Amino acid sequence: MAKRKTKQWFKRGAWWRKIRLNRKHKDRLFRYLFRDKKHLLELYNALHESSYTDPEALEVVTMEDVIFMRMKNDLSFIIDSRLNLYEHQSTWNPNMPLRGLFYFTQQYEGLLAEEEADVYGKRRLALPTPEYIVFYNGGDMEQDRETLYLSDSFSLGRGSGALECTCQVINVRRGHSRELLGKCRRLWEYSEFVSEIGANIRKGLSRDESVQAAMDHCIERGILTDVLIKEKSEVLHMIFLTEYDEKKHLRHTFEEGREEGIAEGKREGLAEGLQKGRDQGREDKLTEQIQKKLARGKSLEVIAQELEEDVEIIRGLAEKAGTGSF
Question: Which residues of 225-239 are buried (b: 16+ CB within 10 A; e: fewer)?
Fold first, then answer.
């Protein structure tokens, strides 16, 4: 596929909130550390046992999450005719293959639109081969690697249906995937840093203290010194700043909608109640007038004419009140 201008499909918005520890710091840090093509290429070489040396051979096509919040991904790039999707997760999610399907669909749509490709033409379109890898640092995985399948979500099980998307999950927690971490120093440094934060928290340190202690520990041992020394304030800002949280946003939006719905229901109920009250009062008054006029021997037709109401309405109210025969 011909070389394209590097393009990010959706740009991140400025969703900033008050300063506190960001529980999604691992995801942010992963993107931050591998934003440099040199380190991203090193990671690709380690995974594929390849030996690319030119970072410019790698074309970044990372999608952002403003317009399609659910379509955010950490890192996406094309090299060697592969469309690579790299993510980091600290919480286990069995739906990663489904998310991968969504990601690749959007990516292919964008890539083909840029080339003005005709999907209805007679020529078979050339597509980069998709590859989805998740670097996992949570506590719910003991093995070094696991492959998840989209078809496991299908009612007929794995291998059924017309679609498949696989996700290779690699455990990068301290003590796991030693061979891979040994080939990519940046990934090993990342693993050490976030693992040290977790270890400090388990020792009883506060989150703030855990991050500071992990920074000192790594600097003393020459781990991530290029960012922890030169860009320490940026890393701190990134870790402690709460980024826009989609789930929180959706939950907040739902609660707002729910509260507004309840309030609207109350308003509508009150209005309806008031109207019913007014209608009932008018009906009671009209019934009282009908009874008095009937007692004087007046016919329904005369009463309807005097009260300026339809005779059937007068008849119905009279019957409802159980007043005489007509």
Answer: eebbeeeeeebbebb
Distance CA 150, CA 168 (A): 12
> What whole-number distance in Å separates Cα of residue 303 and Cα of residue 310?
10
Distant-in-sequence, close-in-space partners of 157: CB < 8 Å, separation ≥ 6: 151
CA distances from 83 to 23, 129, 149 (A): 29, 6, 18
For 9, phi then psi, to 5°, come to -70, -40
For 1-31, write each residue's pLDDT tens digit: 444 444 433 333 332 233 344 545 555 788 8
CA-to-CA distance for 198 and 298, rounded, in angstroms?
91
Averaged confidence pLDDT in the chain: 80
Whether residue 240 has pLDDT greater than 90: no
- Closest alpha carbon to 74 in 29, 41, 117, 106: 29
How far is 96 from 170, CA to CA, in rounded Å? 13
Phi, psi of 131 (to 5 degrees): -145, 125
The yes-or-no verdict on residue 147 having pLDDT over 90 is yes
Strands (E), 137-285: 145-149, 166-171
Give me the count of residues in the chain: 326
The residue with tokens 């203290």 is 209
The closest alpha carbon to 48, from 127, 107, 129, 111, belongs to 129
> What is d(CA 197, CA 65) in angstroms, rounded to the nearest whole number?
27
Residue 279 scores a pLDDT above 90: no
Q: How far apart are CA 274 and CA 268, in angstroms?
A: 10
Among 6-20, 110-124, 151-165, 266-280, where is mean pLDDT lowest?
6-20
Q: Are 103 and 63 in contact (CB under 8 A)?
A: yes
Residue with tokens 């109210």: 317
Burial of residue 308 (number of CB atoms within 10 Å: 0-12, 13-18, 19+)? exposed
Q: What is the pLDDT of residues 33-83, one digit of tens each?
A: 998 999 999 999 999 999 999 999 999 988 765 334 444 567 999 999 999
